[in-house]
Amino acid sequence: MMFTEMDAAALYPPRYSLNTDSAVRTVILTLLNEERPAAWIQVSDWIDRNGPIANRHLREIAGVDTLEASRMLRNWVAQRLLVALPAASRQQARYAKPQKRSAEPDSLSSAADNESGNPQKSI
């Protein structure tokens, strides 16, 4: 029930640890009153730190089963948040953030465009 309630409140799941340093072995339960980031934020951070992500990594991060992780990955690919990397089999599939092409125009203007002496180009 504790896991369900914390999940419903978008909190981190309870953490258990064993304290063997005391005279009597005890179990320590830690409940974090801190909102858990959305799955995409966690996945994006994981990719930034570790590189391409696989289904098994997403299952560990989001606490979902294989089918749900596959669905999430497919949705992110459809939304162009991720790209599927070439793999020999579906079990070896990995996903990465798309690389921005250098020829692709930036949605923000450059510093040179904002200078008063530089007239803007008309399209």
Describe this structure in words.
With 123 residues, the protein is α+β, with helices and mostly antiparallel strands. It has one domain: Arc Repressor Mutant, subunit A (Orthogonal Bundle), CATH 1.10.10. The chain has helices spanning 2-8, 39-50, 55-62, 66-78, and strands at residues 15-19, 26-30, 53-54, 83-84, 94-96. It is elongated, with a radius of gyration of 22 Å. The model has no long low-confidence stretch (mean pLDDT 81).
Explain the layout of strands and helices.
Layout: H1 2-8, E1 15-19, E2 26-30, H2 39-50, E3 53-54, H3 55-62, H4 66-78, E4 83-84, E5 94-96
Antiparallel strand pairs: 1-2, 3-5, 4-5
Question: What characteristics describe this protein?
Answer:
single chain, alpha+beta, Arc Repressor Mutant, subunit A
